[in-house]
Amino acid sequence: MEAPSDRHGEPEPLVPEGIVTEPAAPPRVTAVWGPAGSPGRTTVAVNLAVELALAGRRTLLIDLDTYAASAGIHLGLLDESAGIAQACRTADQGGISPEGVGRAALRARVAGTTLQVLTGLTRADRWPELRRAALDGVLSAAAAGWDEVVLDCGFCLEEDEELSFDIPAPQRNAATLAGLAAADRILAVGTGDPVGLPRLIHGLDELGLHVDTVERSRVEVVVNQVRTDASGVAPQSQITGVLERFGGSWTVGGFLPWDRRALDRALLGGQVLAEAAPKSALRRAVARLAGTAAGGLQTGPATAAVGQGLRTLLRRS
């Protein structure tokens, strides 16, 4: 039997009578941000993107950190070109489509699935290549072409580059600000220790200047590296109490346990948690953050041989 056609001539799929199909989740852009001090922004962004890809969502990871891009290192990618800069050049030359973004992205085979990655700047002094207008075009095209777009953002939110110029001034932090503006969901990552928690609270105050009160539902606080040694007995309860008292009306989206051993194993091998530590509590917590069950724990082939992460780092230095 031939499938009926719609008005555009495309065949409509036949659904057996009595079968109710789940509507596909709408496309989503998630920005992973956090204050200074290495709270784990890239670790969360990379592994979140992998979990979404494992769930069957076409996923694009974009490294927007103009200070210390490292998403490629986490994935053991050896490509020296900055995919985000290439995409911005295309956007500057007359606009960019999802296909154009795809041509600038690398395909990484991780944990038995495929993840596309727009790698970050190879040197911090290349930040002027990422103009705000071009970035907006790239992010718009990415949102139109993928089910999930995960943005690994830098820490700084300052806009002091916009001084009195006859033309728009370049912005060092334009990439992060563009990412936050384009996101449907913002994960604010901080640590729960005595240094990291105050930084997170002050950072949330600054983030509030860029996110309207009505839009605060887009923001979820993610507390990383949670452990009793740094936060005391019942650390989640203590951290929640501090955030409620000093952090304002922000939603706590999740707590990620401290697992240095799993993270070291992943970095050394150029792997992700789904490969290096598939049954770890940290991997399960990231999967919950992604909204996936991580039930079918997939180990898959390693993305690179042991030591690939270190070799990638040395090659880029």
Automatic annotation (TrEMBL):
Chain positions covered by the region annotation Disordered: 1-20
Membrane spanning stretches: none
Biased composition range(s): Basic and acidic residues: 1-11
SUPFAM superfamilies to which the protein is assigned, alphabetical: P-loop containing nucleoside triphosphate hydrolases
Domain CobQ/CobB/MinD/ParA nucleotide binding residue range list: 31-261
Alphabetical list of Gene3D superfamilies matching this protein: P-loop containing nucleotide triphosphate hydrolases
Database matches in InterPro entries: CobQ/CobB/MinD/ParA_Nub-bd_dom (IPR002586), P-loop_NTPase (IPR027417), ParA/MinD_ATPase (IPR050625)
Record keywords: ATP-binding, Nucleotide-binding
Protein name: CpaE family protein
Organism: Citricoccus parietis
